[in-house]
Specification:
Blueprint (H helix, E strand, L loop, with lengths): L7 H11 L30 H13 L8 E2 L12 H8 L16 H18 L3 E2 L6 H16 L3 E5 L4 H11 L6 E4 L8 H6 L5 E7 L11 H10 L2 E6 L18 E5 L15 E5 L11 E6 L5 E6 L21 H35 L6 E2 L7 E5 L3 H13 L2 E2 L2 E2 L11 E5 L6 H13 L2
Parallel strand pairs: 1-13, 3-4, 3-5, 5-6, 6-7
Antiparallel strand pairs: 2-8, 7-8, 9-10, 11-12, 12-15, 14-15
Length: 448
């Protein structure tokens, strides 16, 4: 049976209405060298279902991914272990929906999951309030800048150059059509120079955005920045990429953040070729009504039984641009459910174990680096930059690692265009084992 409802005469009639002679004319904007002649693909005869499965399984086996290689990539997406039960839970029909649970009487399960998610995220980040998620960390960072402008009624945003370049680019794009200044402070190192950041603050500054641990994995004392923000009456926004860090080091809330935003991908969400991710947005209690996104609350019904509802207001209730807290944020309910399932399974002790193993793996690798490779100085969580003598030395190492099925790191210039092409951004998680580190170090010696 053919599933083509339009006849040749139907198609010809549509083409005449559009004003073109043939279907090929609809693709005139695509350069001719990329057009494929009919029949040129030489597709084979149809296969049975079993044969198709064998064909694609063999093709898939040629792919290299985090499950069949040693993995040292980071930069905002991390290879953490995801327990099988996480996928089982989010595959259940009760949760597998993309839409917002506006009808609480039939959405209690989903709403409770969101409420527990908010509670756990607020606790992990040390903040008062969490929303029910954003799309991902970059837009969450940009939304934090907009929120700070609303709260302070000031327009200048100061961004540390050690924030993930993708977060910086999205925030700059958000602010590019608004009044006020957007200032990026060059760090001049693979870390965060708070003196430079503080020096950029003035009376018109709405907020200062830093990343902790920063894009290069650096961990540092935020107390001087907190004092400077208080003096200038601006907000301190703390971004993060791997939230597992806060099971080991001080949380943004403990360090005085007014707003903390970042990625929840490390909480039971696979890398998935870059998505979907989970954006996290938290703040102090007094700023809650300016927070974008949805908030799930706990209440009681007429019979005194507890119930869960979306509280405050939803974006659609004031969709007019001049009144909306955001015109892009949405409900990542399925990813929230994955994260809350992961956190419930792991508990405080499990999250701490993941964080300790992630940090210890990096320390083990850096402590044994050969003399011709340098690691960035200062305290790091699970990410750092390795520097080679030149790009040729780095690329020889990457080529050797590729032959040994080892993802050795990200050439820094691929993410940070200002970086010299001799640096390598590397990350470790609990998935990196002692043998992986030994192989990495052996390759550094062989490929120098």
């Amino acid at each position: 049976m053919r599933f083509l409802p339009h006849t040749d005469s139907d198609r010809q009639s549509m083409l005449e209405s559009i004003g073109v002679a043939a279907i090929r004319d609809l693709f005139a904007d695509i350069p001719a060298e990329f057009h494929i002649e009919q029949g040129s693909l030489a597709l084979g005869d149809a296969l049975s279902e079993a044969a198709i499965m064998r064909k694609f399984t063999r093709a898939a086996d040629k792919n290299r991914n985090a499950t069949n290689t040693r993995y040292f990539l980071g930069g905002g997406t991390y290879h953490h272990f995801v327990p099988a039960v996480v996928d089982y839970i989010i595959s259940r029909g009760e949760f597998l929906t993309a839409y917002t649970p506006y009808q609480p009487e039939i959405s209690q399960g989903t709403l409770q999951a969101l409420f527990e998610f908010q509670t756990m995220i607020a606790r992990l980040t040390g903040m008062d309030v969490s929303n029910a998620s954003m799309y991902e960390a970059a837009t969450a960072t940009a939304e934090a800048a907009l929120m700070a402008r609303r709260v302070t009624r000031k327009s200048r945003v100061v961004m540390a150059g050690s924030v993930n370049p993708r977060y910086r680019a999205v925030t700059a794009n958000y602010l590019s059509r608004l009044d006020g200044d957007y200032v990026e402070v060059d760090m001049g190192c693979f870390g965060t120079d708070l003196d430079r950041v503080i020096g950029a603050i003035d009376a018109s500054t709405a907020c200062v955005i830093v990343q902790y641990p920063d894009f290069y994995g650096s961990v540092y004392d935020l107390a001087p920045l907190r004092a400077a923000c208080d003096a200038a009456k601006c907000l301190m926004v703390v971004a993060f990429s791997d939230i597992s860090a806060f099971a080991l080091i001080e949380s943004p809330g403990a360090l005085g953040a007014d707003i903390a935003v970042g990625s929840g991908q490390s909480l039971g969400i696979p890398m998935g070729f870059g998505g979907p991710h989970l954006g996290l947005f938290t703040c102090k209690q007094q700023y809650m009504r300016q927070m974008p996104g949805r908030v799930c609350g706990l209440t009681t019904d007429a019979g005194g039984k507890r119930g869960f509802v979306l509280t405050l207001s939803t974006r659609e209730q004031h969709i007019r641009r001049e009144k909306a807290t955001s015109n892009i944020c949405s409900n990542q309910g399925l990813m929230c459910t994955a994260a809350v399932t992961y956190m419930a399974l792991m508990g405080d002790e499990g999250l701490n174990t993941v964080a300790r193993h992630s940090a210890a793996a990096l320390q083990s690798l850096v402590a044994r680096l050969p003399a011709h490779v340098r690691a960035a100085q200062g305290a790091r969580y699970n990410e750092t930059v390795l520097s080679f003598a030149d790009s040729a030395a780095r690329d020889r190492f990457l080529a050797a690692a590729k032959e040994r099925a080892l993802f050795a790191g990200i050439p820094l210039e691929q993410i940070d265009a200002a970086a010299e092409p001799r640096h390598l951004l590397i990350a470790t998680t609990e998935m990196v084992e002692a043998d992986d580190i030994n192989d990495y170090l052996d390759l550094l010696e062989v490929a120098k």
